Amino acid sequence: MNPPPSVKPTRKDALGNRERILTVAREALAESGSASLTAIAKRAGVGIGTLYRHFPTREALVLELYRHDIQHLIDRAPVLLREHSPLEALRLWFDEVAHYGRLKFGVAEVIHAATNGGLDDEHYGPFVGAIGLLLDAGAADGSLKAGLDPEDVLLQLSVLWRIDPARGGEERAARILALIVDGLRTPPAE
After folding, report:
1. 20-24: long-range contacts (C-beta < 8 A, 24 or more apart)?
2. Which domain holds residue 31?
3. What is the mean pLDDT of residues 149-176?
4. What is the CATH number of the domain that holds 113?
5. In this predicted model, what pLDDT tens digit does every residue of 72-124 receive, in sequence order?
6. pLDDT at 169 over 60
7. Does one domain contain both 78 and 163?
8. What does the mean pLDDT of the chain come to?
9. Would you state the torsion angle of the CA atoms of residues 63, 67, 68, 70, taken in this order, to the nearest 10 degrees?
10. Which of 16, 50, 137, 147 has the fewest Cβ atoms nearer than 10 Å?
11. Domains in the chain: how many in total?
């Protein structure tokens, strides 16, 4: 069945360009939150017009990266729980959140403004739900304290968006995540 005349099918090369732009933009923005769209297009091997056809504004590009990366994190929580103990799944998930935080460092203001400070963010509830899933699994096996509030943990994680990757960010994030996990763990029996 052919699509209606008003709907133009997306060409395979256009989809490839879009994915390449997103991959390059993720890398470029993780290196510098001020990476220009021209530099991103050049690095992706496409013309600036091609980039603008897919992402008419810098905000549109940043928000698409945000949506993709947040959904990936949401989807990863149950996968990690199937493959690892709850405590290890939580640690691995936090590592992925920290990696994402390096991207968000340079563009947090754009995301914050576009989602009305998170109030209009369709991913907020599912992201908090992913944290809750990990916390509940850890509470069930006794490795994490019972009754932890996922939104409290999200607030703790939000410090990751403030760590400058160019100033020892990876090491600092690892130290902060270790502190967060230590605070969530069930205290050892005395």
Report:
1. 20/44, 20/45, 20/46, 21/46, 21/50, 21/51, 21/54, 21/55, 21/61, 22/61, 22/64, 22/65, 22/68
2. 1-56
3. 84
4. 1.10.357.10
5. 999 999 999 999 999 999 999 998 888 777 666 555 555 655 555 555 678 88
6. yes
7. yes
8. 83
9. 130
10. 147
11. 2
